[in-house]
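Lecture notes, unit on protein representations.

Consider one protein chain, 445 amino acids long.
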Amino acid sequence: MLGDYPIKGRRASDIAADVEQGVSTGRLAPGTPLPPLRDLAAELGVNPNTVAAAYRLLRDRGVIETAGRKGSRIRPRPATAPRDQIRMPVPPHARDLSHGNPDPAQLPDLTPALAAAAGAARRDPVRYGRPSADPGLLALAAEGFRADGLPAGPIAIASGSLDTIERILVTRLRPGDAVAVEDPGWGSLLDLLPALGLRAVPFRLDDDGPLPGAFADALADGARAVVVTNRAQNPTGAVLTADRARELRTVLARHPAVLLIEDDHGHGIVDQPYESLAGAGSQHWAVVRSAAKAYGPDLRLSVAVGDPETVARVLGRQRLGAGWVSHLLQATVAELWRTDAAPAPRVAAAYRAKREALLQALAAHGIEAHGASGLNVWVPVPDETTVLAMLVQRGWVAAPGSRFRLQSPPGLRITVTELDPAGARRLADDLAAVLGTDGAVSRPI
């Protein structure tokens, strides 16, 4: 069952740590079944309750999964092997279009904003006991949320979208709860859920956002929470339209106890209006916005508006851990928001032009692709491994769709941020040659 890997340990924590060590070193492969707890208890000479506690720790950490009488096994993608480690090597002759980063040419010069933040800190140093949030940043965030028609609510400041989403999930859910997620969707979120002991329930989407029927099925399947990306959906670029939002609000209204989380990580780099599902009757909700795409991934800051209870829980738990996000970062982002319009039309137009150049070049070959907003284009393909390998031979590295999928069909994610029109045409020519004449794929994504 375990091959040549003998599990060791006398305490539950030691047994769990030994299994995690086997996973992290590759000696326990994904899908490997674990011994029945009584058999392992007899082998280790410990009480079966000790092994049961170890298995429970491993489930809560997202290392193993349990399927009733089928027993426990290493998860297909345990928390110790995150999806973003699935990367194609980039040969010296190849262009890397797999990274998902914003275009450095579209990022603002941070020097003035950082200098302004440093000057404010020199005049009024932050000390313990200071309010955790910068009043100027709070006011600007509230103004932005209000301009997009979101319900009024308190605001939390955290270190990026994923940090905020994790804090919200931890304060409202328990291990074993189900979370409805987009498929294909953000790989880091798909990894986070099992790491928190949560179960992902996938729903499909098209260019206009989540498909209402699939969305309804996921909520009916017992999901305690749902995460939706309203714009610049990663990896497909889907944008929630007004008509689709109305349909989804009708679905949500039938499940008022479901926690709604909206991830607007594309804020500042898109030119589509923000269509929210908040206000559809959800008792608990939050809308998260990040500075990473507009101002650079190293600006680890996000703002979230939500219902009073959810935000109060997030802030209360934050005070016991990180305490607060650096006021230097907060003041920097506030200065950028004051001096650099968000969403910035110039940046949104630049990314739109890059996406459309590739989409048009692919369409000329009969290859359907998706990329209504954001930094990426999603191309469904019949076989990821073969297509990726053949593209590398032609000098292109794309991201494998397996980083973003649960049950949806294969695809590739292509980051367009540093792809010029000539490059888009060459890439489309090469992809057409790899796929042959039958490149078209029908929706949904």
